[in-house]
């Protein structure tokens, strides 16, 4: 800052003709100031840079003229232009013996270079020499440059000299030495860890400027390890008390406030040290009360100190009188006409309601005014406050307001944040399932691509599970209303992909369940969705799977359904698709149409998305097949470790040992040959043929890692005769991370009814309206009446007594199902735990007695900080950084099992992977390995060859599903 003032004075004196500035420099400054556009300014700077290049190339430039040229380079650099060609001249000027030229050189170098620049190495030696100078101004200039240019590698070169300057007789040098050490600590804490005790010593410096500079590194150290500095609480409180009592020189005053920036830094430090510490907080209450009483709201710096006091009170152990004083100051902020003060009031109110939620109800009308303010920044801050105040009684109003605001903004980053908050609040405080579904529909419709896809999976699960009670009629009504709403929405243009996936899934599961809509009508709508999104394979996959479900349900009911032309066209198109997933879904639909009623009921059961799925880890249902295969001459299972050609870890080690001892004599005997394996008849050692997929329930969307890790053990390999490998995707592992991870419910059904606070006065009457007007502000007293709409909104948000009397108990919403997929029963209602933990405000009353604390009226001594001389003590802590490695695993899919392993299990299980369908063809290849005839691989090759020559298969694949259901 001092260097910037210097260049400002030089520029000002140059405009007056002083310091030998030329007319060219004055004309440059004038022309830039008079430029009417950025393009004109750029042309002026470009001409100036060309002129400077020619002038700096002249070896006979006088020293004073070189100083002016560097200032002109600084001017161009600060306007955003590249002046790197003159950086070396700035480095040279730092070697000059003249103090003005040296300081100008340091100023230019600090602006031109950073710690990673190649020219910095030329400055380090100069800084080392100048730190030993007898002129304290030279030392100060070198310390200022060291803060900017000395990197982590160069810190050891200058650190001893900087540490010695902490005892320099000049206070300006000591202050800049503390600042340099602080900067070194920020860049490399380990380099200056042995010098942190010097910060404690400098806290007792006779100069208040050095003491104020020491507060900055101490704040960083206290953030790292607060417990090591608890002994300084009394010292900090004494310093703050002396500063607030104006014991510092008047030169530290700013707008008639005594050293406000030192006060703010001390309040930040006390907030950290008093967090959760009742004893330490007890020392702070008196001085905080004094600051509140002496607070000046007429200036911005006075309001800043009061705001920092509120932040300190909200962080330390709570006290009723302090909370009352903070609430009163917050009320003054909210009543102000300044948007900046209102913003501070909203932020302070958000901090206080974490301790006492009832404080917000006293300022409900002020919050409503901020919510309706045209200032977008203030409105966003108000939404953050409402997000913290949300409970079951006002969630509908707050979420509706958030969605309305989300629709009207274009900032995608903040739109994503608002959408995620709407989803979180709806899950936690939803009064009913119908309201939750309608809210999710609005969120997906207006911000679908910005919402996590796991939210869509949870919505589908909720529709499938219903209320979780035995009332099937209510669940059917819920699904029917969802189908009606989706049929109205599906025709709208530009719907998000995630929302279309939900629509297709719901229409496929429940589109024809109540008989209100015909199967042909639903299939036509799904075909329209697939045709409108030709480039989105995920939407087309959901659409064709939904069509398959509708055909299966109709066949199972014995109804005859004709294939619509547009549906046939879609199936033919997907059968020739380059996507193997879409191709398989189309073939599955063609195969399903050729099955009888009983087969379809087994393959695609009706409304089976919530059925419990049991996994047979031992695959006992294959025992009879394995025994029959053995009797027919099949080869028995051979453990992987005993197979020829299989390299294990032991073989790798033996190979390394052989390579190490290749050039030495070997004296050990040859290994004995292994006996031939007898034909084992035990079922435990038998190979299993390719089976159907093992169904896995969908994990909750709220898990961060929702992809199921796959593993394959040595016992899962299949003998060479069968040709393909057994896939155990989804089977729970005994060791390692389990596949079935327990999912935490997003919200509890028993926690939807949260009792509001105590009763509040009715704000609808004229008497309370007048009281509210008189307490809200001087401008509101001029016969301004509060509108009825604003009163209703405040009653909805803050839960007045009248609103609580009329509101019915919200219906509980069922929680998400556990991974075991067991049916959850309705439980008794329990109060919803408050999101932010409320600390009980019941300290002993003698901790705060603002009137009984004797205040010394004696005049200050010559040294106001002499009472802190006993403060010195060793520093004890060095930060410890620890990390936790994270691992992840993935398994590439088996290409040979494309028609057996990539088909998702469960007819309507709602897989977390959107590219997977929900068709479960049970045992589609059972016994395929033992049969004769063309193999699946040959059929696939023929089909691919036919497609390459331009032939599109339109009928059922004769080889793909011929052995369906055995």
Q: What structural class do the secondary elements suggest?
A: mainly alpha
Please list the strands of the largest sheet in the order they lie side by side. 1-2
What value does the Rg take, in angstroms? 38 Å
User: What's the total number of strands?
Assistant: 2
Strand percent estimate: under 5%
Task: Report the average pLDDT across residues.
Answer: 74
Please count the helical segments: 38
Protein name: AP-4 complex subunit epsilon
Function: Subunit of novel type of clathrin- or non-clathrin-associated protein coat involved in targeting proteins from the trans-Golgi network (TGN) to the endosomal-lysosomal system.
Family: Belongs to the adaptor complexes large subunit family.
Biased composition (Low complexity): 741-759, 793-803
Care to describe what's here?
- By secondary structure, this protein is mainly alpha-helical.
- It is built from 38 helices and two strands.
- It has a two-stranded antiparallel sheet.
- It is extended, with a radius of gyration of 38 Å.
- It starts with a helix and ends in an 18-residue tail after the last helix.
- The model is unreliable at 13-18, 677-728, 731-784, 800-862, 864-933 and 951-966 (pLDDT under 50).
- One of its GO terms (biological process) is intracellular protein transport.
- Residues 804-821 have a biased composition (Basic and acidic residues).
What labels would you give this structure?
single chain, 966 residues, mainly alpha, two-stranded antiparallel sheet, Adaptor_Complx_Large_Subunit, golgi apparatus, transport, protein transport, Clathrin/coatomer_adapt-like_N
């Amino acid at each position: 800052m001092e260097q910037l003032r210097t260049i400002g004075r030089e520029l000002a004196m140059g405009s007056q003709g002083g310091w030998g500035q030329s007319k060219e420099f004055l004309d440059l400054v004038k022309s830039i100031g008079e430029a009417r556009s950025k393009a004109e300014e750029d042309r002026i700077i470009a001409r100036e840079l060309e002129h400077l290049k020619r002038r700096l190339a002249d070896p006979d430039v006088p020293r004073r003229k070189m100083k002016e040229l560097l200032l002109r380079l600084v001017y161009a650099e600060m306007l955003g232009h590249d002046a790197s060609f003159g950086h070396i001249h700035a480095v040279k000027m730092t070697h000059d013996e003249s103090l003005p030229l040296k300081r100008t050189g340091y100023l230019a170098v600090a602006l031109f270079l950073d710690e990673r620049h190649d020219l910095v190495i030329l400055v380090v030696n100069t800084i080392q020499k100048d730190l030993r100078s007898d002129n304290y101004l030279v030392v100060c200039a070198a310390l200022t440059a060291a803060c900017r240019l000395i990197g982590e590698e160069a810190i050891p070169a200058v650190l001893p000299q900087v540490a010695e300057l902490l005892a320099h007789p000049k206070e300006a040098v000591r202050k800049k030495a503390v600042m340099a050490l602080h900067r070194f600590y920020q860049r490399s804490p380990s380099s200056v860890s042995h010098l942190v005790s010097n910060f404690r010593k400098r806290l007792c410096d006779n100069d208040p400027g050095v003491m104020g500079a020491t507060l900055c590194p101490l704040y960083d150290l206290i953030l790292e390890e607060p417990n090591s500095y608890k002994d300084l609480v009394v010292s900090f409180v004494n310093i703050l008390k002396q500063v607030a009592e104006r014991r510092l020189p008047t030169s530290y005053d700013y707008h008639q406030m005594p050293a406000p920036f030192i006060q703010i830094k001390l309040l930040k430090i006390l907030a950290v040290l008093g967090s959760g510490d009742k004893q330490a907080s007890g020392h702070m209450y008196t001085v905080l009360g004094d600051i509140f009483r002496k607070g000046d709201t007429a200036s911005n710096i006075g309001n800043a100190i009061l705001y920092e006091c509120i932040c300190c009170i909200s962080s330390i152990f709570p006290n009723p009188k302090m909370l009352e004083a903070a609430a009163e100051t917050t009320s003054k902020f909210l009543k102000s006409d300044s948007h900046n003060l209102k913003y501070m009031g909203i932020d302070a109110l958000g901090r206080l309601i974490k301790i006492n939620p009832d404080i917000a109800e006293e300022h409900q009308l002020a919050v409503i005014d901020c919510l309706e303010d045209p200032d977008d920044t203030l409105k966003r801050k108000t939404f953050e406050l409402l997000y913290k105040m949300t409970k079951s009684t006002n969630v509908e109003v707050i979420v509706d307001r958030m969605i309305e605001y989300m629709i009207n903004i274009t900032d995608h980053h903040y739109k994503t944040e608002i959408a995620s908050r709407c989803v979180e609040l709806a899950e936690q405080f939803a009064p009913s399932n119908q309201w939750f579904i309608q809210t999710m529909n609005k969120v997906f419709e207006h911000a679908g691509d910005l919402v996590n896809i796991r939210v869509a999976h949870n919505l589908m699960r909720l529709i499938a599970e219903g209320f979780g009670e035995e009332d099937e009629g209510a669940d059917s009504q819920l699904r029917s209303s969802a189908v009606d709403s989706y049929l109205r929405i599906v025709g709208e243009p530009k719907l998000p992909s995630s929302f279309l996936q939900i629509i297709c899934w719901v229409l496929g599961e429940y589109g024809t369940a109540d008989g209100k809509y015909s199967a042909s009508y639903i299939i036509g709508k799904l075909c329209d969705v697939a045709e409108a999104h030709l480039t989105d394979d995920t939407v087309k996959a959901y659409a064709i799977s939904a069509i398959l479900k509708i055909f299966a349900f109709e066949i199972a009911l014995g109804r005859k359904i004709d294939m619509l032309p547009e549906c046939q066209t879609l199936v033919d198109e997907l059968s020739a698709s380059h996507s193997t997933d879409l191709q398989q879904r189309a073939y599955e639909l063609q195969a399903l149409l050729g099955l009888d009623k009983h087969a379809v009921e087994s393959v695609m059961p009706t409304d089976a998305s919530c059925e419990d799925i049991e996994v047979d880890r031992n695959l006992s249902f294959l025992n009879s097949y394995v025994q029959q295969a053995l009797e027919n001459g099949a080869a028995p299972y051979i453990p992987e470790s005993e197979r020829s050609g299989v390299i294990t870890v032991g073989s790798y080690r033996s190979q390394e040992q052989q390579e190490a001892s290749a050039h030495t004599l070997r004296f050990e005997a040859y290994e004995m040959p292994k006996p031939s394996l007898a034909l084992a008849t035990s079922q435990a050692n038998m190979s299993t043929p390719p089976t159907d997929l093992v169904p896995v329930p969908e994990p909750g969307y709220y898990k961060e890692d929702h992809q199921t890790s796959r593993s394959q053990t040595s016992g899962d390999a299949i003998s060479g005769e069968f040709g393909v490998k057994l896939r155990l995707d989804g089977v729970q592992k005994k060791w390692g991370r389990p596949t079935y991870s327990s999912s935490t419910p997003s919200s509890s059904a028993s926690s939807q009814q949260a009792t509001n606070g105590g009763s509040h006065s009715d704000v609808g009457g004229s008497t309370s309206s007048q009281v509210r007007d008189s307490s809200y502000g001087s401008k509101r007293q001029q016969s301004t009446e509060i509108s009825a709409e604003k009163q209703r909104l405040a009653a909805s948000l803050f839960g007045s007594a009248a609103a609580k009397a009329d509101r019915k108990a919200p219906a509980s919403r069922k929680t998400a199902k556990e991974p075991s997929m067991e049916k959850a029963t309705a439980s008794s209602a329990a109060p919803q735990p408050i999101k932010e933990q409320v600390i009980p405000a019941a300290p002993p009353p003698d901790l705060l007695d603002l009137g009984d604390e004797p205040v010394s009226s004696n005049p200050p001594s010559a040294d106001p900080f002499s009472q802190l001389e006993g403060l010195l003590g060793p520093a004890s802590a060095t930060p410890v950084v620890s990390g936790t490695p994270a691992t992840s695993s993935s398994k590439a899919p088996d290409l040979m099992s494309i028609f057996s392993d990539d088909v998702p299990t469960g007819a309507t299980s709602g897989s977390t992977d959107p590219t997977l369908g929900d068709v479960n063809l049970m045992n589609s290849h059972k016994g395929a390995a033992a049969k004769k005839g063309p193999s699946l691989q040959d059929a696939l090759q023929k089909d691919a060859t036919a497609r390459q020559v331009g032939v599109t298969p339109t009928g059922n694949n004769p080889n793909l599903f011929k052995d369906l259901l055995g």
